[in-house]
Structure formats: C-alpha cells, structure tokens
C-alpha cells in the first residue's frame, strides 16, 4: 500500500487565492491595503528563502510588502526600536519576526514586543493565551496550516487519538491545543517520552514536529494512520522531513510530503492572518 498524498502546495495556492479575493473585497469596501512587515535579522540562508517567499506571496495576494532587514550584529535595542516603529505605523497590519534570531538576541522578549493585534505569527503570550482558552485570536501559522490540511482532506478528528511529537511553542504546543479543541484526545510526546514508538503506534493522527530527520519510521505508524510531517531538513540529496517517508508511505493512510506539505501552508496561513489582522483593525460592513 502507498499512502495518499496530502498536497500542501495545491491547498496553499487555493488559500492564497481566497486571501487575494478577500483583500480585493476589503479594499472595494473602503479598507486600506493590508501591509505585512517581515523582519529578518542576519543572514541565515533558510530564513532568507522563507522570507523571500513570504514577501512574494504577500504581493501576489495584493498586500503591501513592508519588509525590513537588520544585520546579524544588530543589538536588542535596535530590533526593539524597529518593532516599536512598525507597531506604531498604521500601514502595517502584521509584523513577523523571522526565527531563529542570532544567538545574542532574546527572541521571546522581542516577539512579546509585537502588539497582539499585529501578531500575525500568533506567537505572543496574548495570542497563546487566547488559543489556550479557545477564544478568537491569531493562531500560529504552521499548526493552523496543519488544521487546514486535515479539514481539506476530511480527516476525522472528533474522538480520535492524535499524537503530537514535539512540544515547541512554535508548533507542538499550539498544535496539541488546536487538535484538542476539535475534540481529539491528544498525547504530546517529546525527547523524554519512554515508549515513543508505542505512543505513535496508538495514533489515528500523528503530527511529527520533532526537528530530527527521519525520527519516525514505519515501526512507529499503525496501518491507515494520517501522518503529518512538519520537519524540514536539508540533506545532501534534497529536503527531508522528520518522517522516514519512503518507509512510512507503505503503512500510513495519508501522508504530507516534504517538500510540498506543511511548509507552503505555513506561508498561506500567514497571508490569511495578515488579512484577518487588517480586517480587525478597520472593520467594514
Ligand atoms: N517567525 C517564524 N519563524 C519561523 C516559522 C514561523 O512560522 N514563524 N516557521 C519556520 C520556517 N518557515 C516559516 O518561517 C517556513 C518553513 C518552510 C516553508 C516552506 O515553504 N517549505 C517548502 C520548502 C522550501 C525550501 O525550498 O526550503 C516546503 O516544505 O515545501 C515555509 C516557511 C521557522 N521559522
């Protein structure tokens, strides 16, 4: 058996088109053009690729690209001042601080400087608190993208066992909360989990965001499981995920590819959050 492919590229295109229509409708109703300020500090090559793609898709959706860049040597005060400037600028609907930051910077404190209304990455403690309480707010892009994939492919969640491997603030924790809010029973596994293979084998839906290439093999996947691979690693012969895809595809029911799975949806949900932030800032009829 070969698992069905959960096509994140096609779905992201669809979401981007929906956002473009939403932007046009918002402007036609008298709203200003939504603006996204991506902030890139330093020259991490992967971050350069992600930010370039975010900026391109933002423009394609009809939004303003208000990108700002600082050198790797920028001090905490300089990045703070830039975030404060963007926070005060009415043309800026959303602020995204690309991660990781250079090691000398205090990333959580800088993220926290972003006003919740412009937190299109959904990473401030205010956004996290709203999510934890199931109240409306901007959700982190990767977990929101995973939920869109699961819904687009009609993967049932209610009453199922969802296992999330990884407990990061960026993916694992919000992912678990979103799944739980859809009435899945959620287990979060991490580096100290005793029987990782056994836990994963009991999943109906398995979301792997461990940051370790190939950590999930076929032995950790029960036949028919829906497997979402959040990992992206640059290997000598191309991009690979946290899942050993050739082996897992033989047992899983559905599987996201890497590339072309969760990654493109992360950017699509950023566009969607930026439109939502602009709309909330200037509601129209
Ligand atoms: N502030 C943030 N920083 C980071 C986030 C985030 O959500 N907010 N997530 C990741 C990186 N990321 C977005 O920034 C991201 C990763 C991957 C992709 C993507 O489209 N991947 C493609 C492959 C692209 C390539 O050639 O490398 C795919 O999987 O098909 C988009 C966004 C860490 N930082």
TrEMBL record:
Residues that, per the record, bind NADP(+): 166-168, 232
CDD domains from the UniProt entry: NAD_bind_m-THF_DH_Cyclohyd
Species for this entry: Streptomyces capitiformicae
Protein's UniProt keywords contain Transcription: no
Pathway: One-carbon metabolism; tetrahydrofolate interconversion
Known partners and oligomeric status: Homodimer.
Pfam families hit by this protein: THF_DHG_CYH (PF00763), THF_DHG_CYH_C (PF02882)
Presence of keyword Protease: no
Catalytic reaction(s) noted: (6R)-5,10-methylene-5,6,7,8-tetrahydrofolate + NADP(+) = (6R)-5,10-methenyltetrahydrofolate + NADPH; (6R)-5,10-methenyltetrahydrofolate + H2O = (6R)-10-formyltetrahydrofolate + H(+)
Name of the gene this protein is made from: folD
Assigned protein family: Belongs to the tetrahydrofolate dehydrogenase/cyclohydrolase family.
Recorded superkingdom: Bacteria
Domain Tetrahydrofolate dehydrogenase/cyclohydrolase catalytic, residue spans: 6-121
NCBIfam families xref list: PRK14186.1
Function comment: Catalyzes the oxidation of 5,10-methylenetetrahydrofolate to 5,10-methenyltetrahydrofolate and then the hydrolysis of 5,10-methenyltetrahydrofolate to 10-formyltetrahydrofolate.
A Gene Ontology biological process term: L-histidine biosynthetic process
A GO MF term: methenyltetrahydrofolate cyclohydrolase activity
Keywords, sorted A to Z: Amino-acid biosynthesis, Histidine biosynthesis, Hydrolase, Methionine biosynthesis, Multifunctional enzyme, NADP, One-carbon metabolism, Oxidoreductase, Purine biosynthesis
EC number(s) stated in the UniProt entry for this protein: 1.5.1.5, 3.5.4.9
Tetrahydrofolate dehydrogenase/cyclohydrolase NAD(P)-binding domain location: 140-280
Name of this protein: Bifunctional protein FolD
A GO cellular component annotation in the UniProt record: cytosol
């Amino acid at each position: 058996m070969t698992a069905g492919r959960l096509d994140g590229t096609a779905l992201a295109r669809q979401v981007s088109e929906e956002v473009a229509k939403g932007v046009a409708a918002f402007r036609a109703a008298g709203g200003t053009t939504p603006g996204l300020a991506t902030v890139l500090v330093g020259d991490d090559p992967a971050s350069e690729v992600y930010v370039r793609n975010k900026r391109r898709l933002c423009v394609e959706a009809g939004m303003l690209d208000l990108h700002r860049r600082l050198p790797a040597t920028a001090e905490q005060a300089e990045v703070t001042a830039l975030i404060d400037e963007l926070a005060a600028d009415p043309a800026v609907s959303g602020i995204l601080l690309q991660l990781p930051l250079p090691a000398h910077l205090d990333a959580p404190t800088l993220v926290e400087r972003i006003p919740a209304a412009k937190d299109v990455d959904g990473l401030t403690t205010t956004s996290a608190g709203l999510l934890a309480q199931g109240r409306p707010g901007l959700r982190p892009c990767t977990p929101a993208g995973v939920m869109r994939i699961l819904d687009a492919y009609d993967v049932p969640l209610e009453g199922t066992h969802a296992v999330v491997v990884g407990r990061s603030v960026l993916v694992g924790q919000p992912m678990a909360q979103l799944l739980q809010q859809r009435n899945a029973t959620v287990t979060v596994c991490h580096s100290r989990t005793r029987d990782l293979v056994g836990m994963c084998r009991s999943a109906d839906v398995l979301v792997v965001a461990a940051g370790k290439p190939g950590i999930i093999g076929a032995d950790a996947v029960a036949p028919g499981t829906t497997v979402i691979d959040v990992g992206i690693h640059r290997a000598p012969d191309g991009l690979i995920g946290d899942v050993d895809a050739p082996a897992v595809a033989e047992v899983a029911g559905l599987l996201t590819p890497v590339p072309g799975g969760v990654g493109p949806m992360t950017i699509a949900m950023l566009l969607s959050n930026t439109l939502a932030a602009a709309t909330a800032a200037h509601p129209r009829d």
